[in-house]
Amino acid sequence: MKILSVRHVALPALLLPLIAAAQAADEQTMVVTAAPTTVSELDTPAAVSVVNGDEMRQAAPRVNLSESLGAVPGLQVQNRQNYAQDLQLSIRGFGSRSTYGVRGLRIYVDGIPATMPDGQGQTSNIDIGSVDTIEVLRGPFSALYGNSSGGVINVTSQTGTQPPTVEASSYYSSFGTWHYGMKATGAVGDGSHAGDVDYTVSTNRFTTHGYRDHSGARKNLANARLGVRINDVSKLTLLLNSVDIKANDAGGLTADEWRDNPRQSPRGDQYNTRKNTRQTQAGLRYERQLSAQDDLSVMMYAGERETTQFQSIPRAPQLKPSHAGGVIDLTRHYQGIDTRLTHRGELLVPVTLTAGLDYENMSERRKGYENFVMVNGAPQYGEQGALRRNERNLMWNVDPYLQTQWQLTDKLSLDAGFATARYGSTRTTTTSPQAMAMTAVMPAITNGCPRAR
């Protein structure tokens, strides 16, 4: 998929017929892959925005998604300016109450969920240097993707093509901020014959001393995609991703502290607050055209995420029997499989049927320690102390889903979907039916009436 550009412009309604006529003369079709099937943006029942990867890389440091997603309608990206804390994303208000991570939204990176079964998502493993497109789906039809009430963010990496290319980039700014990376892409064959191969390999490093005291950070990120054409009707794609982050946490300031010196970090220096994160994951996608009307897609993935965080919690609260301590030591192992079958046929009218089953599970080992050790009768903060918490958590999701589209006339279509999710140790089950009728007012204008629960 190649998308040249995406622009959102507000113009008077009287100009719409002229715009439609101009677009008919020079039409560019945007293809949406974040939907259950690959469709045009005019045919999907969700509100969709697509950001092109080349445009993201033209005039930005390539460090945070906030550099390029801030202009997407309905999407708010809150950059905390603290690399020990991830970005806060919200779509139409969903996710705005999250104090850490991303909640209420579903994030995918090359088909692998960046949202864990407990609903918490991360954006730290997204490599802007190799992004092809980022698609943002808003609206009720995003419920087909599981526990995401607000929407879906789908990130797709570049697919290598001929001729081979090697790209190097570097960005330098104040406070010791430096980002540099390399990317190699290429292909053997045109991708349509058995044995054809395409590849994309990207790696980059980011370092900064930070504007405030005790706010330095370092991030290493690598992303790889390898596709192999097995035969004329099937393809296998291998996906690899790894990120390693070490960041100091400057913490907050009182009003008086900020007026005195906004760059200071008194509690960061006292408690040596910091966060280390390491994540490695791998995925394997198998795609096969069973017939002229049927397609099969199977996605398998597994990964591990380790997080250690030192917080600015005084000694006294940690001495309470129920307190978990001032150090978080978290290890998560996650894996899953998504199987999807698409059929295109006729039942009085042309109809497209998509049915699938998504299963994912996560095993979490969570420990808590005191953030101090006693030296000569006084606490020395910033050191891992006594164990205060030791627990193991298991989480799983089973999400069968079904979506159909009837093309009733040349200008009228009806979409209907149904998804159910069963998750957690309490065997909680939720259902999400949706329906939408769409009519084409003009070739470039559609009108829809959605209904979802």
Automatic annotation (TrEMBL):
Residues 42-152 form the TonB-dependent receptor plug domain. Keywords: Cell outer membrane, Membrane, Receptor, Signal, Transmembrane, Transmembrane beta strand, Transport. Pfam families: Plug. It is found in: Cell outer membrane. It comes from the Bacteria. Residues 270-282 have a biased composition (Polar residues). One of its GO terms (biological process) is siderophore transmembrane transport. Residues 1-24 form the signal peptide. Residues 252-282 are annotated as: Disordered. Transmembrane segments: none annotated. The keyword Signal applies. GO terms for molecular function: siderophore uptake transmembrane transporter activity. It is a multi-pass membrane protein. PROSITE patterns: TONB_DEPENDENT_REC_3. GO terms for cellular component: cell outer membrane. The keyword Repeat does not apply. PANTHER family: TONB-DEPENDENT OUTER MEMBRANE RECEPTOR, TONB-DEPENDENT RECEPTOR YNCD-RELATED. Belongs to the TonB-dependent receptor family. This is TonB-dependent receptor yncD. The lineage of its organism: Bacteria, Pseudomonadati, Pseudomonadota, Gammaproteobacteria, Enterobacterales.
